[in-house]
Design a protein that fits this description.
heterodimer, A: 182 residues, alpha+beta, three-stranded antiparallel β-sheet, two-stranded antiparallel sheet, 6 helices, 5 strands, elongated, B: alpha+beta, 2 domains
Chain lengths: 182, 397
């Protein structure tokens, strides 16, 4: 053991260095959040509670094709349809078992009409299972509550994928600014 | 007196887990103890078995992907990349270059986040609490970046067969670049705390030693293997995505003990930062979904209701899976943060795999725990569990 190592060992320099770091950190701003009082906004595109899109004439956009139910990995969507007047398909029930959902967002991608969305709302805990069994009316309410207006339009522009631009090279495709490769 | 002595000599059998804070989930080890020395160590796995392989065989190639997120739930992005790569190799398609670069970036971000979590919990098990608090600060940062990218923090489901879900935003690129600039200083902080700390050294140096030859024979992979001095890295030896276009080193240890495995992972985080920076600088312009694989990728949404062929593809792909008609088998492995994550597919030409088999690193690493722990002290068992880095979701599948 050299003299240098011996002094390091006696004076516990490595521990003192660590202590100095923790002491320094004590004077920095805390990173923790006091959650229920202090809330953090979910970033756009967050995959939260489901909603069904309401058209401008306040009717359902869903046509009941059943693709969302077909792709759902946990099979939490069930759709019941019947024949209406003029032989149109009427969606009688559209139900989502939120407790079974794993929030992959595949239903949004599968929907050819853009009729189902995942909102940015994530604080929906409740005391009963029935409260988290989303019926058509509840899902439409979710749309009114969380996504109606501009937010919904922006959602479909950004997160209803794949769009044609994903298969091509759109203009102003984001790359690192001032990079060396250009 | 004689009976008392006989009693003392008897080995004590204890259960470590499945509800023990340092077993990283639901690992159960049955330890036969002679005093404080472990005579025999028997791992019991299966407490988190969900039948992922069978579930995968019963759902289409498309809709089985979210199951992969739940294998190694701290590095879900690499699992998804492994799955998508396997399906792409099975059907012989390639993701476009931009998608490959994005996948490389997110894989390396996952590697950092997984190693940070490993570092925090491993140090916490051994008794260093501060590292845990600091490392979770940075992990939160990466998870925020994931949320910005795809809308989910942990179970991302971001890569797709033939590309990625959505293109990266300018905001994401800028914040990730900022992260790569600041993170190396944070690694230094962790190292200031434990790298030379005498308690840390005593708890890790010379513990759980496994030689290079034995490590290979046990089937170890990833940093656990490289800690023993074997330069085996799938990213270098069988490059996938954009790994052959970037420059990075493979850190290896010398002694094969807990400390060397720790050093390997710390260096890997630095290399990951290097890879991310290069990928960001080289990120090419172009599509993010393969345009030449209509039977495997969902068609563009504008086309679904406008173009007859796209509509048929859309409906068939979602209800029946990719009807390629190609049968065959493939084994495709990637370098996940824990080690070699391999997926073996047998296709019979229908939309669902005939057989799906997962080769998960954690399962193999758990099987090596008795070799590492027998003859050591109980406290070293904890250090060993931490150093082989197991996640039970992946181990039990």
């Amino acid at each position: 053991m050299t003299f240098n190592e011996l002094t390091k060992r006696i004076f516990m320099t490595e521990i003192l260095k660590g202590m100095a770091l923790t002491l320094k950190t004590m004077f920095t701003k805390p990173v923790t959040r006091q959650y229920p009082e202090e809330k953090r906004e979910a970033l756009p595109g967050f995959r939260g509670l489901h909603a069904l899109v309401r058209k401008s004439d306040s009717s359902l956009r869903c046509v009941g094709c059943g693709l969302c139910a077909a792709i759902c990995p946990s099979r939490c969507i069930s759709i019941y349809t019947s024949e209406g007047v003029d032989h149109t398909k009427v969606v009688d029930r559209y139900e989502v078992e939120v407790l079974k959902c794993l929030f992959c967002g595949f239903c949004v991608e599968a929907c050819p009409f853009g009729a189902v969305v995942l909102t940015e709302h994530f604080e929906y805990s409740d005391y009963s299972r029935e409260a988290l069994f989303m019926t058509k009316e509840k899902l439409l309410n979710n749309w009114d509550k969380f996504m109606a207006g501009k937010k919904g339009e922006q959602y479909f522009e950004k997160y209803w994928r794949p769009l044609a631009e994903d298969f091509g090279t759109p203009e102003n495709q984001p790359v690192l600014k001032n990079r060396r490769a250009d | 007196m004689a009976t008392a002595q006989k009693k003392l000599k008897k080995e004590l059998t204890i259960n470590l887990g499945p509800q023990h804070p340092s077993t990283h989930g639901v690992l159960r080890l049955v330890l036969d103890l002679d005093g404080e020395t472990v005579v025999k160590c028997t791992p019991h796995v299966g407490y988190l078995h969900r039948g992922t392989e069978k579930l995968g065989e019963n759902s289409t190639y498309l809709s089985a992907m979210p199951l992969m997120d739940r294998l190694d739930y701290v590095s879900s992005m690499t699992n998804d990349v492994a799955y998508c790569l396997a399906v792409e190799r099975l059907f012989g398609i390639m993701a476009p270059e931009r998608a490959q670069y994005i996948r490389t970036i997110v894989s390396e971000m996952t590697r950092i986040s997984s190693h940070i979590l490993w570092l925090g919990t491993h140090a916490l098990d051994i008794g260093a609490m501060t590292v845990f608090l600091y490392s979770f600060r940075e992990r939160e940062w990466i998870l925020d970046l994931f949320e910005m990218l795809c809308g989910a923090r942990l179970t991302v489901s971001y890569p797709r067969i033939g590309g990625v879900r959505n293109d990266v935003s300018q905001e994401f690129i800028d914040s990730l670049y900022k992260f790569t600039a600041e993170f190396p200083a944070r690694i230094l902080e962790y190292e200031t705390l434990i790298d030379q700390n005498r308690i840390w050294l005593q708890r890790t140096k010379g513990i759980g030693v496994i030689s290079a030859e034995e490590a290979i024979n046990w089937g170890l992979s990833g940093p656990t293997l490289r800690g023993s001095g074997v330069t085996y890295d799938i990213r270098k030896h069988f490059p996938y995505d954009a790994y052959d276009k970037v420059d990075f080193d493979v850190p290896v240890g010398q002694h094969g003990d807990v400390y060397d495995r720790y050093r390997c992972r710390m260096e890997e985080m630095r290399q990951s930062i290097r890879i991310i920076r290069q990928c960001l600088e080289k990120l090419p312009r172009g599509p993010v979904m393969a345009p030449d694989a209509p039977k495997l990728t969902l068609p563009a949404k504008e086309k679904v209701l406008a173009d007859m062929e796209s509509m048929i593809h859309h409906f068939v792909l979602i209800t029946k899976g990719p009807m390629t008609g190609q049968s065959g088998e493939v084994y495709s492995a990637i370098e996940a943060p824990k080690g070699e994550l391999g997926i073996y597919f047998v296709s019979d030409g229908t939309g669902k795999p005939y057989r799906m088999r997962l080769r998960s690193p954690s399962f193999v690493h758990v099987s090596a725990l008795p070799r590492l722990s027998e003859g050591a002290l109980v406290a070293d068992v904890i250090a060993n569990i931490g150093s082989v880095d197991v996640v039970l979701g992946e181990c039990d599948r």
